[in-house]
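WARN retry 2 of 3 for item q-0093 after timeout on previous attempt; input resubmitted unchanged.
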Amino acid sequence: MLLLVGSFLVLMIIGVPVAISMAVASVLYLVLYGVAPDIIVAQRMIAGVESFPLLAVPFFILAGNLMNSAGVTGRIYAFAVALVGWMKGGLAQVNIIGSVVFSGMSGTALADAAGIGTIEIKAMKDHGYPIEAAVGVTAASATLGPIFPPSLPFVIYGMMANVSIGALFMAGIMPGVVMTVLMMLTVAVFAYVYKWGSDAPFEMKQLLEAGLEILVVFSIPVIIYIATLLGFSVNASVGIALLILLAVDWYFDFSAVMALMTPVILIGGMTMGWFTPTEAAVAAVLWSLFLGLVRYRTMTLASLAKASFDTIETTASVLFIVTAASVFAWLLTVSQAAQLLSATILSITDNKWVFLILVNLLMLFVGCFLDTIAAITILVPILLPLVLKFDIDPVHFGLIMTLNLMIGLLHPPLGMVLFVLSRVAKLSVERTTMAILPWLVPLFIALIAITFIPAITLWLPTQLGLIK
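OK item q-0093 returned
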C-alpha cells in the first residue's frame, strides 16, 4: 500500500496529471507485487466506465456548452439584474442568482465559472467593484453548480455508491437554497461594510416582469395538473402546457423564461417518472438545441461544432480519470487500505457525529489535491462501508462529500475553479486565493449545517418517496 500511495503522491508533486499518476502508480504496484495479471488493469478500466448512469456525463456537459454558445448565459444575467440588481451590492447578488439559474443547466462548477462567471466578473469590474470581490463571489457561487440538480458529481457518486441519482438530485435542492441564502447574506454584509451601492435603478416594471417570468415558469406544473384533471392524458397535458408557454413567451418576448424552464423540465420529468436522470441529460441537450436554433436563433453551425468538440474533450478527460481511479481504488481495496482506515477510525470513535467530523476534515484535505471525480471514485468504496456501519444515509453522505470537494475546487494546489478564475480575471493564483478566502465562511457554515442537520438534505426526497 505504501508503494501505491507513495508513488501516486510523488508523481502528483512533480506535476504529473492526476489520472496519469493514478494509472502509473497502479501499474507499478501490479508489476512489482504481482497481485493480479497485468490484463486486470484493462479489465478494471473498462468496468469503471461500463455504466448506464455515466451516459449522463457527456450529455450534461454538452447541455452546459450549448447553453453558453447559444447566448443563454447573457439572458440569465439580464434576468438576474432585473430581479436583484437594485439591491445594495447589486451585481454581487446578481452573480449568485445567475449561478443558481445556470446551475440548473450545467451540473458543473467549471461550466458555471467559465460561462456566466466570465460575464459577471467583467460587469462587476466595469461597475467599479474591486476585482478581488468579483472573483470571490464568482468562485463561491460556482460551487452551487454541482449542488443544485443536475449534477455530474452526483451521477458519479450514485454510480459508485449504488444510490438513486434521482434521490441525490432532489436532495441537493434544499442545501442549494441554504447556500444561496448564506451567500446573499454575506454580500449584504460586504455591501454594508464597504458601502457598495445598487447597480441598477429600482424599477417596478422590470421587477414585475422578472416576477412574471418566475410565475409563468412555476405555472407550467399547475397547468399540467389542471389539464390531467380535465381528462387529458399526461402527454397531452404537457403538450398543452408547452404550447401555452410558447405563446406567452412569444407575446411578451421574455428574456429568460425558456432558459428558466430547463431545471423545471429536468426536475419535473424525473419526479413524474417520465425519464431517468440519464434520459434527463438527453432532454437537457434537446432543450438547449431548441433554444439556440429555434427560439433565440443565436446558435450557428460553428458554435455548435465548438460546443461539441469542447464536450468531447471534457468527457474524455472525465472518463479517463474515472477509469484510472477505478483501478487505483480497486488496488487500495486489495491492499487492505479500506480495512486499515476502517479499523483506525473505529479505534478513534464509535460516534457517528465524530466520524462525520473526521470525514469532513479528510475530504477537505483530499479536495485540495485530487480532482472531484477521482476523489469520489477512490473514496466511496473505502468510506461507504463505514457510512452504512454508522447508520448514515448514503444520500446524505453524498451531499456532504460533494460539498467538501466543491470547497476543494477553490484551493491550491489543484483547485480548478481557482485556476479558471485566475485566468479569466488576469490575477495571480496568490491574489485569487486571497480573494476567495472570505467567501469560504458561508460555505463552511453551510457545510456544518448540512452535515449535522440531515433533514436539510433528506426532507425533500423523503416527501417525494425517493428514499424511505
